[in-house]
Amino acid sequence: MVDILHQVGVVAPLADVYRVVATPEGVTGWWSIDATGESEVGGRLAVRFGADGGFDLKILELDPAGRVRWRVVGGPDEWIGTEVDWRFDSRGTYTIVDFTHAGWREPTALMRECSTKWAIFLMSLKELVETGRGRPAPDDVQISDGH
Questions:
Q1: Which is deepest, 42, 85, 133, 137, by most CB within 10 Å?
Q2: pLDDT value at residue 144
Q3: Taking a C-beta distance cutoff of 8 angstroms, is the pair 27, 40 a contact?
Q4: pLDDT of 147 over the 80 cut
């Protein structure tokens, strides 16, 4: 198995960072403007990217003290069964975001592209919490034809 790992510091209280990851409304501010679903363990989050499809995520954990976990249950075959794990830790004026997208079967071209896109979306999350405005899809930084 292969994992995508990223870390970013956000100048904001942990509760603010948690909220934009733990709720569909928050996700629309940094990942995709088309995110719907619930904010409860066992619930679902649907994130869409227009004609490029999207992902269905089962919410495994919501801990306001510092963790959100999703399992991918719909989307590209390579994503199915992988888990997205968010951990938040307060350090002075920063909330440190430790991000893991775990369980990839192998390091494919899609995984490499997704690693770059996750980094872009983490910076969008940082911008959203720090400035009030992120760059969710379709306004995100493009790295290849349509992605």
A1: 137
A2: 81
A3: no
A4: no
CATH number reported for the structural domain that contains residue 77 in this entry: 3.30.530.20
For residues 92 and 80, give the distance between their C-alpha atoms in angstroms, rounded to a whole number: 37
Average pLDDT over residues 32-37: 98
Please check whether residue 144 lies inside any domain of the structure: no
**Crossing angle, helix 14-22 and helix 109-131, to 10 degrees?**
130
pLDDT at 110: 92
Residue 75, in any domain of the structure: yes
Cα–Cα distance, 64 to 108 (Å, whole number): 34
Helix, strand, coil share (%) of the chain residues, nearest 5: 25, 40, 35
pLDDT for the residue 146: 55
Give the C-alpha separation, 132 to 51, whole Å: 27
Q: What domain count does the chain have?
A: 1
Q: What domain range is 50 assigned to?
A: 2-131
Inside any domain, residue 142: no
**pTM (2 d.p.):** 0.95
